[in-house]
């Protein structure tokens, strides 16, 4: 083991152990051993099975469905690590659940993204490492350092080696225009926007397209899909406007059965996503899952050794502006 990493420990909750294993392999250390189980009434029990006193501990746990269960498990792991005298505890949250509840957009509702941030700090987290938060301002909800990565370099490398004809990058809604613009600038491709309206939590409706997609390959980019309503309605209207083929690049594919059914019946040629959360391989959907373990692993190495993570926001000499 590299001497620089003798005090480094990486542990995994039960949300995405395969990703944690790949991260540890990239760093070059064994994945830490912990016992995580549930009592008959559903309570979570956590015990670290090795000495972590004075160690730099990283706990990998996306808060994907079952969201509340995985969040509570992460909080308990952080608390157990602090009580075991870990020198520093970093919560590695590839997917940050509750991120869509980041503002008070109607009367008498919670800003739950802020509540979750408070809970993580109260549990004892000293630092957070996240990827493609739904809203940039969530970083400001924390009173501890937050390293916010993006999967853009991972998607960029894939897209550069899988050329698409006369590509146009599309944002499926106004809120995603900055991410789409980033992809457009890096790839040197055109940019378009789908204007939509949300009917309810499960349904959206695309109204019109701003930009030229006639006869072109189209890449819809977004941070998250669950019910696939936004991306599917965008794909449908893009095809109506003459797009040749429609692809989707989504950082977090937190798919439920509604989303899977919609994708099967959609105009999408393929869905490209990452392993930030477990992604089931489903018949009838052309799915490509990109590995973000090297990205997260490199960030962990640099955080542990006190190095800058700025270079992780550059690809082929081009800076990524989030």
Describe the structure.
It is a single chain. The protein is an alpha/beta fold and 322 residues long. It folds into two domains: 175 residues, Rossmann fold; 139 residues, Rossmann fold (3-Layer(aba) Sandwich), CATH 3.40.50.2020. The longest helix is centred in the N-terminal third of the chain and has 17 residues. The strands form four sheets. A seven-stranded mixed beta sheet has the order 10-9-8-11-12-13-14, sandwiched between helices. Strands 1-4-5-6-7 form a five-stranded parallel beta sheet, sandwiched between helices. The protein has a two-stranded antiparallel sheet with strand order 2-3. It contains eight helices and 16 strands. Helix 1 packs across helix 8 and helix 4 packs across helix 5. The chain is 29% helix and 28% strand.
Summarize the structure.
The chain is built from eight helices and 16 strands. It has 322 residues and is α/β, with parallel strands linked by helices.
Name the features.
5-stranded parallel β-sheet, Rossmann fold, 322 residues, 29% helix, 7-stranded mixed β-sheet, 2 domains, alpha/beta, 8 helices
Q: What do the pLDDT scores average to?
A: 92
CATH class of the largest domain: Alpha Beta
Coarse morphology: globular
DSSP E strands, number = 16
Q: What CATH architecture of the largest domain do you see?
A: 3-Layer(aba) Sandwich
**Number of separate helices:** 8
N-to-C order of helices and strands:
EHEEEHEHEEHEHEEEHEHEEHEE
**Alpha carbon gap, first and last residue:** 35 Å
The total number of structural domains is 2
Helix/strand-derived category reads alpha/beta
Neighbour order of strands in the largest sheet: 10-9-8-11-12-13-14
Estimated share of beta-strand residues: 25-35%
- CATH topology annotation of the largest domain: Rossmann fold
Residue windows where pLDDT falls under 50 for at least 5 positions: none
Multimer state: single chain
Helical residues, percent: 25-40%
Rounded to an integer, what's the Rg over CA atoms? 20 Å
How would you characterize the largest beta sheet?
7 strands, mixed
GO molecular function: ATP binding; kinase activity; magnesium ion binding; ribose phosphate diphosphokinase activity
Cofactor: Mg(2+)
Catalytic activity: D-ribose 5-phosphate + ATP = 5-phospho-alpha-D-ribose 1-diphosphate + AMP + H(+)
Organism: Methylacidiphilum caldifontis
